[in-house]
Specification:
fumarase, 5-stranded mixed beta barrel, about 190 residues
């Protein structure tokens, strides 16, 4: 008879998130996020990167230190993740992490190169199922933070409580075994020594 795995506890994470909290997270951990998170996707994340690279992020009054960015648009129907491995989204993750984002929240596998960048900046990637109505119940308030003319794809600041997610990439390890070896980013040669 197969033994069932012990259910993991849910870890409460409050924004802004510090490095010590991130260091405790492991692949497979279930988290609930509370506080303000930013919501943006392929229309605005490259614009944020441009502002970061131009040293002018303060121009839009967005503080990314300890932040969570959810890869989504905000619509009257609710919020739900978009694929994080889109070029514009995945390509923004290193710069956003360097600027202070601690949790990138979305769906889909990311490349080993992006996982290395997450590790470098002590950030993690968490996945969440696309259940818009459920997430809408977790929203306390919302406001357009920047790029208003993008409509529902503008950068939103959304206050949440009890927002669920699962850590998918942390400290060079991943749950995406079909894309990587299943042992993180280690290769077989390192195991032979």
């Amino acid at each position: 008879m197969k033994k069932l795995k012990k259910a993991r506890r849910v870890i409460k994470v409050k924004t802004p998130i510090d490095n010590r909290e991130i260091e405790k997270l492991r692949v497979g951990d279930q988290i609930e996020i509370e506080g303000k998170i930013y919501c943006g996707r392929d229309a605005v994340l490259p614009k944020l990167v441009e502002l970061i690279e131009g040293n002018s992020l303060d121009r839009i009054k967005v503080d990314l230190k300890g932040a969570v960015i959810f890869h989504t648009a905000v619509s009257p129907a609710g919020i739900g993740p978009t694929s994080s491995n889109k070029v514009e989204i995945e390509g923004s993750i290193p710069a956003l992490s360097q600027a202070g984002v601690k949790i990138h929240l979305g769906k889909g596998a990311l490349s080993p190169k992006t996982a290395e960048e997450l590790k470098k900046y002590n950030s993690v990637f968490a996945i969440t199922p696309p259940v818009s109505a459920f997430f809408s119940d977790k929203m306390i308030s919302q406001r357009v933070a920047a790029f208003k003319k993008e409509g529902m794809e503008a950068l939103y600041e959304v206050e949440v409580k009890g927002f669920p997610a699962i850590i998918a990439i942390a400290h060079g390890k991943t749950i995406f075994a079909t894309h990587w070896s299943g042992r993180g980013m280690e290769n077989d040669k390192s195991k032979k020594d």
